[in-house]
């Protein structure tokens, strides 16, 4: 026991690379992990444990790891007492019903009396119960999408991201059970340990700064002096824009941090107001 914060990450799968990238953006120098079970971070009191994603909620709940990164779908299925501290914005997917293309599922009540195959029996049973529905749930450990064509189930309840798997198996998307993304979870005990909680607070502050930075961009442009008010009115800036003088008189440079998704909505207005040399740059960290 070295007193370091222990973080459980998925060993090999959809969340692994994104989780490590997030840590790197938080300034953590993660040793080359390849096939090791535990690696240390060189410049932060953090050890990373690589595990199957299904095991992460229980390991965190039992204190084997102090915190973990895992999909919400997994924690809700495991029903562990592991509070969600931060939503991380990657690993997005939805758990939803899907049924064969040649069948109909017009309203949710149509699942009554049907057989549904899933790898998420707890979430599905809770959903059926809270919607007063009565269907037979068949638990499979994988390849749920082939259950209808094998005649094992009438429909499925599975994780979908692009929808390609459904399409390839001639299944149609239907009602959604819930949306999921990767989250940071902790054990109750971690929050009560003074030293670990201090490290965790630092880590969470860094994560939030990376997340805000990712949803923001740095906008730079040159504008005619007389259109400054108009330009400021167009920019959906987080703070008041920076205005700089240029060698060319009657021109100014304007810099601002804007939400990434707003850029394409304002570009035409900026140009119409005389902006030129417009640059949009990524931001690595943003402390607010
Ligand atoms: O080995 P280990 O148990 O650790 O990994 P795993 O195979 O159980 O999980 P993995 O790596 O597939 O997924 C890890 C987490 O990523 C999941 O728990 C989800 O939170 C999240 N995630 C995001 C997904 C998907 N997108 C996803 N598309 N998890 C699974 N899928 C599967 C889905 O089950 C279906 O088979 O991908 C298929 C559908 O994908 P589309 O793109 O064709 O719709
Ligand atoms: Zn798994």
Give me the CATH architecture of the largest domain, please: 3-Layer(aba) Sandwich
Look at the structure and give the mean pLDDT: 95
Shape summary? flat
Small molecules held by this entry: phosphoribosyl ATP, zinc ion
Radius of gyration: 24 Å
- CATH homologous superfamily of the largest domain - what is it? Periplasmic binding protein-like II
Model description:
This protein is α/β, with parallel strands linked by helices. The protein folds into three domains: 5-90 and 182-213, Periplasmic binding protein-like II (D-Maltodextrin-Binding Protein, domain 2), CATH 3.40.190.10; 93-180, 3-Layer(aba) Sandwich (D-Maltodextrin-Binding Protein, domain 2); 216-282, 2-Layer Sandwich (Alpha-Beta Plaits). 30% of the residues lie in helices and 31% in strands. It has helices at 16-25, 56-61, 72-78, 121-130, 147-150, 164-168, 188-192, 194-214, 228-234, 263-272, and strands at residues 5-10, 38-40, 46-51, 67-71, 84-87, 93-100, 115-118, 136-139, 155-160, 171-180, 182-186, 216-224, 242-245, 251-259, 276-282. The chain has a six-stranded mixed β-sheet with strand order 2-3-1-4-11-5. A five-stranded mixed β-sheet has the order 8-7-9-6-10. Helix 4 (121-130) links the parallel strand 7 (115-118) and strand 8 (136-139). The protein starts with a strand and ends in a 6-residue tail after the last strand. The model has no long low-confidence stretch (mean pLDDT 95). It binds phosphoribosyl ATP (PRT) and zinc ion (ZN).
């Amino acid at each position: 026991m070295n007193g370091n914060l222990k973080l459980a990450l998925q060993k090999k799968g959809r969340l692994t690379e994104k989780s490590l990238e997030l840590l790197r953006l938080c300034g953590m120098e993660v040793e080359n992990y390849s096939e090791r079970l535990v690696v240390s971070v060189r410049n932060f009191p953090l050890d990373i444990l690589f595990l199957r994603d299904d095991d992460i909620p229980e390991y965190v709940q039992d204190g084997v790891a102090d915190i973990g990164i895992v999909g919400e779908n997994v924690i809700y299925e495991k029903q562990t007492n592991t509070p969600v501290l931060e939503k991380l914005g990657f690993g997005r997917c939805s758990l939803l019903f899907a049924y064969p293309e040649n069948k109909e599922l017009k309203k949710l009540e149509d699942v009554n009396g049907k057989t549904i195959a899933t790898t998420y029996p707890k979430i599905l049973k809770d959903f059926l119960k809270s919607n007063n529905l009565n269907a037979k749930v068949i638990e499979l450990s994988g390849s749920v999408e082939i259950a209808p064509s094998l005649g094992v189930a009438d429909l499925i309840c599975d994780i979908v991201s692009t929808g390609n798997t459904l399409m390839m198996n001639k299944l149609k998307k239907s009602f959604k059970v819930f949306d999921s993304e990767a989250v940071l979870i902790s054990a109750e005990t971690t929050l009560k340990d003074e030293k670990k909680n201090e490290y965790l607070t630092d880590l969470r502050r860094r994560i939030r700064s990376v997340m805000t930075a990712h949803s923001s961009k740095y906008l730079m442009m040159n504008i005619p002096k007389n259109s400054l008010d108009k330009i400021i009115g167009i920019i959906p800036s987080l703070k008041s824009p920076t205005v700089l003088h240029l060698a060319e008189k009657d021109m100014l440079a304007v810099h601002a941090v804007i939400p990434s998704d707003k850029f394409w909505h304002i570009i035409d207005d900026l140009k119409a107001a005389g902006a030129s040399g417009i640059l949009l740059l990524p931001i690595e960290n943003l402390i607010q």
